[in-house]
Design goal:
This protein is of the alpha/beta class. The chain has helices at residues 3-25, 30-36, 47-55, 81-89, 121-131, 145-155, 191-197, 216-220, and strands at residues 64-68, 94-99, 111-115, 134-139, 159-168, 221-227, 230-235. The chain is built from eight helices and seven strands. The structure holds S-adenosylmethionine. S-adenosylmethionine binds at residues 39-41, 67-73, 79, 81-82, 98-101, 117-119, 140-142, 147.
Length: 243
């Protein structure tokens, strides 16, 4: 190895080491972890402010966390920033991810990545069988409305009882280039319209509607939490009252 290559190698090595050390020291501070690991879940979107409200109590549990979307798109060694953030925030959990591009080079201890599309039902079921159970699912994939809806319909039923499903960047629900609609906010093909429609189901027992048969989402959604461009959906737990 010549001096220039050695210098580049050492620079990368110490940068990685520094990031790991800083992540360890700040492992309970999600805002800091986002900055250290350079994911836009931090200072660009500040989703971490909401994530910590919902995830803090779960930090030390042994969970299976699945994130859709690794980042870095077609570049094999780019991305994985949020996966490394989750790995440090959930020190006893396994972090799984899927991406349409091959991101296998970014795998490390407690981070496993599958290649495939978030709309491919057979692939998603195969991933689920490989993982075994899912406690948290985060959709940060294509953000195309049709994809977000299809993925939710496949994966939410596979989420563990009491699990949490998060959807990021719901602003695309208003953007035509992603299949969204700003003119007709009741357009049934937008993601926000689907998630808004699930709110009534929280109260389905109160309907004065003879013979109403509750649907899967009526029965299995305990609560929905809407924030700026971010939604959390809690699955009903074993006690059927964990909202
Ligand atoms: C916004 S980036 C993810 C960023 C990452 N979660 C983070 O916070 O650091 C979106 C990723 O979704 C992937 N993606 C796009 N369409 C997809 C699809 N249909 N299925 C799975 N992944 C997809 C892209 O390749 C890209 O890497």
């Amino acid at each position: 190895m010549n001096a220039e290559n050695l210098y580049t190698y050492q620079k990368k090595f110490f940068r990685k080491l520094g990031r790991r050390l800083l992540s360890k020291v700040n492992s309970s501070n999600l805002d800091m972890l986002a900055l250290i690991n350079k994911t836009d879940k931090g200072k660009d979107h500040w989703y971490t402010r909401q994530y910590k409200k919902h995830f803090h109590a779960l930090r030390k549990k042994r969970l299976n966390v699945l994130e859709i979307g690794v980042g870095g798109y077609a570049e094999p060694k780019a991305g994985g920033n949020s996966l490394r953030m989750w790995k440090h925030y959930f020190p006893d959990s396994r972090i799984y991810a899927i991406d349409i591009h091959d991101k296998s080079l970014l795998q490390e201890k407690r981070i496993k990545i599958f290649k495939g599309s978030q709309t491919d039902e057979a692939f998603l079921r195969w991933v689920f069988n490989d993982i075994g159970s899912l406690d948290i699912i985060i959709d940060d994939g294509s953000h195309i409305n049709e994809h977000v809806i299809a993925t939710f319909k496949i994966l939410f039923p596979l989420l563990k009882e009491g699990g949490i499903y998060a959807i990021e960047d719901t602003q695309t629900s208003y953007w035509p280039e992603y299949g969204g609609d700003s003119q007709n906010l009741s357009n049934p093909s937008t993601s926000m319209n689907l998630f808004k429609s699930l709110v009534d189901g929280l109260n389905y027992q109160e309907y004065k509607k003879e013979g109403y048969k509750p649907g899967y989402f009526d029965i299995n959604i305990a609560s929905l939490h809407f924030y700026h461009n971010l939604i959390f959906i809690y699955k009903t737990g074993k006690d059927k009252n964990n909202g």
